[in-house]
Amino acid sequence: MQIEISGLSSPGAPVLVLSAGLGGLGSFWAPQRASLQARYRLVTYDHYGTGNNPATLPEPYSLQEMGRELADALTAHGIQRFSLLGHALGGLIGMQLAADYPERVISLVVVNGWLTLNAHTRRCFRVRQDLLLNSGVEAFVRAQPLFLYPADWLAAHQEQAEAADSHHLQHFQGTGNLLRRLSALMAADFSAMAAALTLPVLLIYSQDDLLVPWDCSLELEAALPQAECIAMARGGHAMSVTCSEEFNQRLLPWLQQHATV
Questions:
Q1: Cβ neighbours of residue 81 under 8 Å, at least 6 residues apart?
Q2: Close Cβ partners of 209 (under 8 Å, ≥ 6 residues apart)
Q3: How far is the C-alpha of 244 from the C-alpha of 253, rounded, in Å?
Q4: Rounded CA gap, 221 and 101, in Å?
Q5: Phi and psi for 24 in degrees, rounded to 5?
Q6: pLDDT in tens, the chain (261 residues)
Q7: What is the CA radius of gyration of the chain?
Q8: Three-class DSSP labels, the chain
Q9: Which residues contact 136 (CB under 8 A, 6 or more apart)?
Q10: pTM surpassing 0.90?
């Protein structure tokens, strides 16, 4: 699996891995790259089966496999110790890595994540799945921003949203891959292993997230031994995009304290 390494080049520089959500594309983190690569050896990647890492995913497919794919790619580049910033699915991949490779993961930031799948989130995923299967890829892609962005932001950024729609249509990961990744995501359950994840974890959530209710992060905080939460009042599920300046300002001090070698 291909990864992209940027930022600090010294061997002793702290490594920060960025992992996107269900869309899987490393470009999701564009609003954070400039500030992060000035401080870290920054790793971005498209999840296996998406973007620049095309593949037909196996059936069944699991979160453990997603974590192993990333761990192997990092090993191939000589990266053994790292911190990880993950959005939704990307954050769950980070928790899976911390469970399976505890000696390698220094700290985690989980954005709009969860301990077990919330009933509301399950409903949203099923709606998206039905759109894909019954109405096709274009309908799925067109509906996606409704789950990611606040209505007022989306109304004011229609041109940007339409350009993103075109990009996602052109680089769609494939119906089979998306359904396998979604199934793996929905099956993820950390309730039995959370107490063993003793590394520092920052949970960032948005109170107006349509897809993942904000109290999912509070439930996760209560289950993790060294977790703390940062609440953003608005920004939707993708608040790292819609309110990137505030997001970055809240993220960086914690990383400077915890994402060290």
A1: 15, 104, 105, 106, 261
A2: 112, 236, 237, 239
A3: 15
A4: 21
A5: 85, -5
A6: 999 999 998 888 999 999 999 999 999 999 999 999 999 999 999 999 999 999 999 999 999 999 999 999 999 999 999 999 999 999 999 999 999 999 999 999 999 999 999 999 999 999 999 999 999 999 999 999 999 999 999 999 999 999 999 988 988 999 999 999 999 999 999 999 999 999 999 999 999 999 999 999 999 999 999 999 999 999 999 999 999 999 999 999 999 999 986
A7: 17
A8: CCCEEEECCCCCCCEEEEECCCCCCHHHHHHHHHHHHCCCEEEECCCCCECCECCCCCCCCCHHHHHHHHHHHHHHCCCCCEEEEEECHHHHHHHHHHHHCCCCEEEEEEECCCCECCHHHHHHHHHHHHHHHHHCHHHHHHHHHHHHCCHHHHHHCHHHHHHHHHHHHHCCCCHHHHHHHHHHHHHCECCCCHHHCCCCEEEEEECCCCCCCCHHHHHHHHHCCCEEEEEECCCCCCHHHHCHHHHHHHHHHHHHHHCCC
A9: none
A10: yes
Residue in the block written with tokens 């960032």: 204
Structure-token pair, residue 248: 């970055």
